Amino acid sequence: MDQYIGRFLDNRYEILEIIGTGGMAVVYKARCHRLNRLVAIKILKDEFSRDEEFRRRFHAEGEAVASLSHPNIVQVYDVSTSDNANFIVMELIDGITLKQYMEKKGTLNWKETLHFAMQIAKALEHAHGRNIVHRDIKPHNVMVLKNGSVKVTDFGIARVMSKTNTLTKEALGSVHYISPEQAKGGWVDNRSDLYSLSVVMYEMMTGRPPYDGESPVAVAIKHINGGAPRPTTLNPNIPEGLEQIIMKGMELDVKDRYTSATEMLQDMEQFRINPAIRFSYAKAISADATVVLNPSEVAQAVRQSRTAAEKEPRDSGSIPGIRTQQGTRPASQTGSRSAAQNTPGQPRQRQRAAGAQPGRSTGSAEGVRRISEERGELPRRKTREEIRREVRQEERNRAATIAVVVCSVVAIIAIIIFLAVLFNGGMVGRGENMIYVPDLKGKYYDQAGTVAGLVIEVDKYVNSDDYEKGKIISHTPEYGAQVLQGTVVKVTVSLGPATGVKTMGYMVGYQEADARAVLTGMGMVPVAMEEFSDEVEKGRVARTDPEAGAQLQDGQTVYIYISKGPLIETAPMPHVVGLDYATAKKTLEALGFTVSFERKDSSADKDEVIEQPFPKDEKVDITTRIVLVISKGNKTSGKETEKPATEEDEYPDYVPQTPNQGGSQSSSQSGSQSNPNQTKTKQVRFSLPADRTEPYMLGFYQNGMQVIEDTIVGTGMTSIDVVLTGSGVQTYDLYINNQFYKSVKVDFNAND
Fold first, then answer.
1. Which of 112, 388, 527, 650 is deepest in the core (most CB within 10 A)?
2. pLDDT at res. 675
3. Sign, Cα dihedral of 132, 263, 118, 235
4. What are the start-end ranges of the E strands in 557-624?
5. Using CA atoms, how far apart are residues 273 and 277, in angstroms rounded to an integer?
6. What Rg, from alpha-carbon coordinates, does the chain have?
């Protein structure tokens, strides 16, 4: 049995079970008895705990990371040492690692990849803004929750780990995601985390990391040398814009990467809005990228071409003094030269044999060639004038070709500008801003959603044997219709060919309308509910029931839970003035508040509450500390002062009153207990209808005011327990789905 299971750390954390083991630490599930909640505790292994310098850095980094507060970062509650155990207390996450998720699903689609990557980048943005670098971003350190959100773990642990500066610890898990500068033992900053995030994105999209090898050192060397294959060579379905983001983040030189997580998030957001986008980075990502010249660049190319034409070497025959790239070529270097001219240092002269015809050299190769030409044995050599004419004609043709190219480029640019103006509402027709509906059939819905001047909405999803999943089958208004800017175009989107088995898709983050359209097209019955969510934006799907991957039957009801945004739990402030401190403290703690006090001179009885920070019934965040002002009593009146108590102090001054021997009590005590209007807090059970077949929203109201936030009640529930505060007999009205159900009277003086 493990040495820590069953033990208490800091007299508050009870170790329950092991939930994970890593190279540095063991993670346990534990219960905090002070706050009565489950937590995760990471305890350093003995070999690290024995290193004093390591312990010092561990605590320093842990305390720094505890300052991070972000929905995509696992919250650190405490860093401490107890019984030679060095540990970190964190929130307990109900989920699996991103690595396990990837192993289960294989290659992810680009939407899932972007969904996870943007959350990780937001976590890095928050940490980098507080000068904390993770140094060990990998799928093993990212938790995926059931609602599809992610939380990054182990912030600061990798920084402590870097003290060893070796590839032997945790190398097999980390080296595939390590940045080149980390592999070389160089300076590490926020751009190193962005490199690792890009590697994780690479693996999500391709199913494998960019580099692999027989040993950790071999993999590290590959990171240092670079040259990873482009993701599209492994998965051709990766959009170009997303590939550009990945490859920019994985640049070998840190100067060529994103400068910050914020910059990377901006590109991710642009790609999310327009998946067809192509980014223009200072450094090209691929060697075969198409380059489009602007008119000034084309004009410069024309001038360079003309200059090159003037310098271009040609087969000039016997033209003396023709210009080449090496300068002026003397006539002695042309093809028309005699043997005597080839002899260095000899004067140039032409020898004529006796009886030879003028201009014909019978004693040289040139003379032989001329005789062969005259006899028709060789084609006639062109004259100098003919060659000059051909050169001039070639130059004119080249200039004409370049002019045509320039005109074509200018025309294309003009057309692009015209279309841009057209689709952005620049044309005015019939006195109003009108545009023409483009042909959206066959286009992917995600790409069609970026058409300027139109609002693209899904009307329905249907199965189709003719259109791939995600492509538009039809739309209204149809192609060619002239409509006002901002017109809503309803599209029918293909679900692909119908299959025998229907599977629940991943819909976290969908708009409610899109989720309904998909489910309706599949033959399901969508039912929307609302719930609070710290991870999913308000108005979007937070989770579904059944979850993604579950098999569905025709006509099945599918619940889609729409996020109401983060939950700030509140409770109405009870009236505690006049109560003794012990009773007031118990009343407030029952509502979830943390309570402390300070003393003040007063004629009231000692320990009686004389001031409270919030008025009765005001909604107060339950995480707020309530500081009550209590009376010092008559004996402590005057100039005597006391140090205010803190939350760690016990409450030694309060002594519960007990009945006198004769059974009578003091007048103040008797009056307190006999007061029927004294405010009390009690748990009340309300009965509910047993014939409800669907979940519903239950609301509690008193005198027209809501006293408890709406609660979702599942099928099969016949009662519900709620905590109420009041005095005497109060009447509460219950509403189901905003419709009155019944009224119930609650007697706060009754002993249930």
1. 112
2. 56
3. negative
4. 557-563, 570-572, 594-600, 609-611, 619-621
5. 9
6. 41
> For residue 270, what are its two tokens?
């642009």
Type and span of the H or E element at 529: strand 525-531
Q: Which helix (H) or strand (E) holds 234?
A: helix 231-234
Written as one letter, the residue type at 416 is I
Query: Within 10 A of 559 (CB to CB), how many other CB atoms are there?
Result: 16
What are the DSSP calls for 444-505, one per residue? Answer: BHHHHTT-TTEEEEEEEEE--SSS-TTBEEEEES-TT-EEETTEEEEEEEE--S--SSEE--
Q: How far apart are CA 346 and CA 219, in angstroms?
A: 68
Instruction: State residue 425's pLDDT score.
Output: 46
Distance CA 712, CA 717 (A): 11
Residue reference for tokens 């640049």:
251
CB 176 within 8 A of CB 219: yes
Distance CA 565, CA 117 (A): 21
Please tell me which residue in 136, 154, 193, 267 is annotated as part of the active site.
136
Which residue type does 284 have? A
DSSP class of 332: G
Candidates 131, 210, 227; CA nearest to 175 is 210
Active-site residue 136, yes or no? yes
pLDDT at 733 over 80: yes
- The pLDDT confidence band at residue 647, using thresholds 50, 70 and 90, is very low
Q: For 567-570, which contacts have Cβ atoms below 8 Å and span 24 or more sequence positions?
A: 567/532, 567/533, 567/534, 568/621, 569/621, 569/622, 569/623, 570/619, 570/620, 570/621, 570/622, 570/709
CA 204 to CA 184: how far, in whole Å?
26
The sign of the torsion formed by the CA atoms of 508, 510, 513, 515 equals negative
Q: Which two tokens stand for residue 241?
A: 């814009």
| First-residue to last-residue Cα distance in the chain | 45
Q: Please report where in the chains the tokens 């954390």 appear, as a residue.
A: 13
708, pLDDT greater than 60: yes
* Structure confidence by residue, pLDDT tens digits, 453-492: 788 888 878 888 788 888 888 888 888 788 887 788 888 8
CB atoms within 10 A of CB 548: 15
What are the start-end ranges of the E strands in 614-737? 619-621, 625-631, 680-687, 696-702, 705-713, 719-726, 729-736
Residue from 463, 472, 464 nearest 440 by CA: 472
Exposure string over 53-82, b if 16+ CB within 10 A, otherwise e: ebbebbbebbebbbebebbbbbbbbbbbee
